[in-house]
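Model: Ready when you are.
Researcher: Fold this.
Model:
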Amino acid sequence: MHLVGEYSKVGEKRLIDILKYCEKVKMPLAIENLKSNEIFIEVFKNIKSEMLKFCFDSGHQNAFSKDYNFLKKYNDKLIALHLHDNNGQKDEHKLTKFGETINWQEIAKLLVNHPNISLDYELPQDNKYDISPQEFLNETKKQADLLENMILNYENE
């Protein structure tokens, strides 16, 4: 779920109502870190629910929140990943080969405690790469394999 705007009591009540339903049907609700940190932080500070979870977006962290480590702070709530790289200035959804500014070692260290989480990439295949769709998929697989190997290396330390 993307939360935008400002934190309010009306929004809080609506989110609590949604989470009550999530608890009833045993379905987690993942909040994604976006460009604005305030509403995300307020939700996790003010609303307590076993179904309130976190979707970590590596590109948003890198471009918009370098000084606030969402993955470290909310690691216990992590349930989903949106992995992609960028130039550190804007949300570009690039393969690391074409972005190369995210510290994947740091992310790997924090993913060690999540052996069953999928390494999900949020990457549009378009003309900005100047490679074929097959090459794009191969590069994405290489990137995922590299991250998985980093995670395994930290698990074995």
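Researcher: Now this one.
Model:
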Amino acid sequence: MDFVSFSPKQKTVLTWWMPGNPHFRREAIVCDGAVRSGKTMAMGLSFFLWAMTCFDGKRFGVCGKTIASLRRNVLSEILPRLEALGAQWKEKRTENLVTVTFRGHRNQFYVFGGRDEASAGLIQGITFAGVLLDEVALMPRSFVEQACARCSVAGSRLWFNCNPAGPGHWFYRTWILEAEARNCLRLHFTMEDNPSLTDQIRQRYQRLYTGVFYRRFVLGQWAQAEGRVYDFFGPDMVRPAPEGMYSEWYISCDYGTVNPTSMGLWGLHQGVWYRVKEFYFNSRTAMRQMTDEEYASALAELAGDRKITAVIADPSAASFIETLRRKGWRVIRAENDVLSGIRLTSDCLKKGKIVICEGCADCLREMDEYVWDLSSEARDRVRKENDHAMDDMRYFVATVLKRQEAAFTACAVERRGDRKSTQF
């Protein structure tokens, strides 16, 4: 990297802690995003400059997945650059300690590897003025939280950087989605933020990846990358709900008491079924459960004044089905062959026969989080997590679209005797 050339986002990382900067009062920073986006270099250099400028005689933590990867990716890149600025440093590898002297200040930097849950014990008992966690998404939560808890010196700050993992990852939900609440500056990096990359190199990376891998490694999005059931599904397949007349409406429902309940409103517009709206309730998050009557009211609100042909219901939801029928809804128990339903749903998504619209946030979230069970004991099974909107979508496709397709494919059956065709 050209040492004197920094992108605007890298300059923000380098200066956010300086008095007078708009972000000066932030207590933490997260840099996440694409590979080769320049975030590690900017953050590592800024962390050491901040520590050496603002503190003297203090201890800091520098953490990676392993000590070897941390030395390779951070220390070997940053320490020579500090030396070029006039700093002196000395490393004691047996103690995993780096001592830096710069402009009359001398501080100690302890190096840790957050490989597994047991690693949290290595960091207990020490007091830090700040901690840098490189590739934090690869570390166990217990280690990260223990490292953060060690920062009790006045003026201490937390520094995180990582490439994205899945959208259900605890760090994404705890630190990135809650950045403002935690007084944390979150900066999202793409390859455009790394001035050392040529257009040719950027194009090479863009050619290397497709689908979810392109989203994760090139765009830097938090997308599930391993074992996704609908691994072909991307943001280009999401559309706004079309305006105009819809010729038919259904509601599909996956019912839960402790587990979430998900309902999807499907409308037929010019031969395509659109999931235009949804209802999703998680009793664990809400810290309360809803009754069948409350769910029936939610379904009626989802339907609005539309004429609903039928409710395609979770076949195991006996009490809810009975409640709906008493209220006058036509209810069809869903076809529930999981594997064939997934295959049919995949085909319908690829061919554009069904479309998930922009407002269906929980369905779109689960599209990224719905994964195969890759354990050696499980074959051709999905993990029973983040599957509630996925189930109600599968119920709709397997029950409504499968029947419609069967009607079309069996429309010219020859009778014996009179050789006349019959339409089913």
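Researcher: Key takeaway?
Model: DSSP finds 13 helices and 16 strands in the chain.
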